[in-house]
Amino acid sequence: MVRRKEIDGSLSVPCFYGKELRYKREQAGLSLEAFLEGSYYGKSYLSDIEHGQRRMPSALARHADQRLGTDGFFERNCKDVQKAGKDGHAEYFVDVLELEKQAVEIEEWEPLLIPGPLQLEPYMRALILAAYPRESEEVLAARVAARRARAWLFEDRDSPESWVVLHESVLWQPFLPPDEMAEQLAHVVEVMRKRRAFPQLVPQKSGPHPFMMGMSRFLAFNDAPPVMYTEGMYHGQLIDEPGLVRQYSKAYGRLRAAALDPETSLRLIERAAEDYRNGKHPRPLE
Q1: What's a Pfam family this protein contains (predicted)?
Q2: What residues contact 145, with CB distance under 8 A and at least 6 apart?
C-alpha cells in the first residue's frame, strides 16, 4: 500500500495553499479525478499544486471554488500564491516560470532579442538597464541571477524539446562591444550544438510573415492543454483559450516555414560571431 505523503504547509505560501486545497477536496469526499471533472487538467497536475510544486491557474481556481463551494477563496488568493518567492522576476512572468518546469515542448519566436535563457550576463545587464535605467546594483544583480537560472531550459539533459525562431536582425544589432557580441553569439551556437534545442533564422528578405508584432512562446504539456505567452517591455499575457492558442500555433507553423533550416541558421550565427571577433559588423543576408 502506497503511503500518503503529508504536506508541510509551513514550507512556503504555495504549500500552505495546496494543503488547504487538498483538505477541502478530501472534506468534500472527492478524489483527484472526481474533483477535476469538467476541467482540462490531469490529476498529476492537481497533485503538484496540492504539494506546492505548481501554481494554481486562475481557471482551475475558479473551478475549485465552484466544485468545493469555497466562496471564491481559491480564486481570490491564487495570484498572491503565484507571486510568492519569485524575486528577480516580474510579477506577470510568475505563471510562465512554473509552466516551464512542467512543459515537454517549448516553441519560441524572438524578433529582436536572444531569448533570456541563452543570454550571458553582459547582454542581460544591457537589456535590463535599457528598461530600468535607475535600477540599483543590488536589484540588477538579482534580476541577472534570476534570468541566468533559467539557462537549464536549453542546457539540461532533461529540458523540454525546444524550437527557437529568431529574426536575422538579432545577429547584427550591436547591443554590446564587438568582443562581447562575439562571445554571446558563440554561446548560442555552443548550446544549440548540443541538440536539445533547434534554432531557425527568419531572413529579413522573407517579407511579411506571422508574429511581426512581438515575441511569443508556446508551451505544451502531457497533462494539460497548451498555452501561449506573449510579452512587451513592462507586461506579459498568458493565453490559454484553446481555440485562440490553436490559431496562433498554426501561424507559428507558417513562421517556421518562412525560416531557414537549423543547420544553415547555426552556420550564420557562427559567421556573425566570427565577424564581431574580427572587428567587422555583420550585414543582413543577401
Answers
A1: DUF5753
A2: 88
